[in-house]
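Notes from the 1:1 (GR / supervisor)

We went over the backlog. Supervisor wanted to see one worked example end to end before approving the batch request, so GR pasted a single chain during the call. The sequence is below; no edits were made to it. Supervisor asked that the structure be written out right there so they could see what the output format looks like.
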Amino acid sequence: MSDITGVLLADRNLTTMTKSLKAAGLDYDLEKNGPFTVFAPSEIAFGKLMPGLLAGLLRPEKKIQLIALMHRHIIHGKKSFNDFTDGEMLPTLGGKMLEVKVNHGIVTINGATIQSRDNDAFNGVVHSLDTVLS
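Structure output shown during the call:
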């Protein structure tokens, strides 16, 4: 079984997330440490951002802002899809809180819908989202 970084690398719909984590210097942590749950925005999710926003964040002088954005998508512990409960609050690595909504089998995290779920890694799990968490 692969680590979280390997799971992200294997999914062509998560290329921008992988690139962003590497630029933020978080890829190593997701290879060795854990367990973590990563809410990974898909390529379509990143495409919804204002033009130029992500390119700006990928510049070395914006690394702190990029780290903050990536931290909003990661929580400590392994949280499988069936473990989410409606109204649950999840603290991110960056200290923000994510609100879980469960409605007829659809799970949203701060309004972003989980699209692909339970992509297991030996040190956690990856769920892909349809929107970048702000």
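Supervisor's comment: The CA atoms of residues 16 and 129 lie 13 Å apart.
Batch request approved.
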